[in-house]
Design a protein that fits this description.
By secondary structure, the protein is mainly alpha-helical. The protein has 6 helices and 3 strands. The chain folds into 2 domains: about 1-50, no CATH class; about 65-180, Four Helix Bundle (Hemerythrin (Met), subunit A). The chain has a 3-stranded antiparallel sheet with strand order 1-2-3. The longest helix has 30 residues, at about 95-125.
Length: about 180
């Protein structure tokens, strides 16, 4: 918890350096209404500037890190689904825990979608318009795999079907050689 002047307090609710995400909670409604929330915004901007991966073609990429994060997210989705199924099979269902696992599953699926769109599609896949060029087939393969990963992540949010996890894992394995060690 960060305490500033005039009883304005900021708490970091989530911090994820791999994905460059910081979520802050601001306390004291009077300060928010009086415009002191700008301080929190400046802090958020400063933190994001330090930790977030930019979109200003800096040329600093770590594909292996992103691919490993996707793999970890897939494992977490699988564990979440298994826990949801296990909890729902109990004689007395702990709905609080079921909801927590559902939220966890959905959060990791959304993180995969975000990584695919914000990192790979926006920064790493470069358009190739010449259908006769040797790079065109690679371009289409990357787009197809990334689209498939996004759809499988979406479907994993919609159901408890482990087939979606298998699909995510298979597509991710196909994607790895296209980006591994290419910095």
């Amino acid at each position: 918890m960060l305490e500033l002047k005039n009883d304005l307090k900021i708490e970091c609710l989530e911090y994820n350096i791999i994905r460059g995400r910081i979520i802050l909670k601001v306390f004291n409604k009077e300060d928010i209404m009086s415009g002191k929330i700008v301080i929190a915004g400046m802090l958020l901007f400063a933190c994001a500037s330090i930790f977030a991966h930019c979109q200003i073609p800096c040329g600093i990429f770590d594909d292996d890190l992103r691919l490993a994060a996707i793999k970890e997210d897939i494992q977490t989705i699988e564990k979440s689904i298994n826990e949801i199924v296990r909890l729902q099979a109990e004689k007395t269902i702990d709905y609080n825990q079921v909801v927590r696992w559902i939220n966890n599953k959905d959060k990791h699926a959304e993180t995969i979608q975000s990584t695919v769109t914000d990192y790979f599609m926006a920064q790493r896949v470069k358009p190739v318009t010449d259908k006769d060029s040797p790079e065109y087939a690679d371009y289409i393969k990357k787009l197809t795999l990334l689209h498939g990963i996004m759809v499988a992540a979406m479907k994993s949010k919609q159901s408890l079907d482990l087939e979606n996890v298998s699909k995510l894992r298979a597509l991710s394995a196909e994607l790895n050689p296209l980006f591994e060690h290419k910095h």
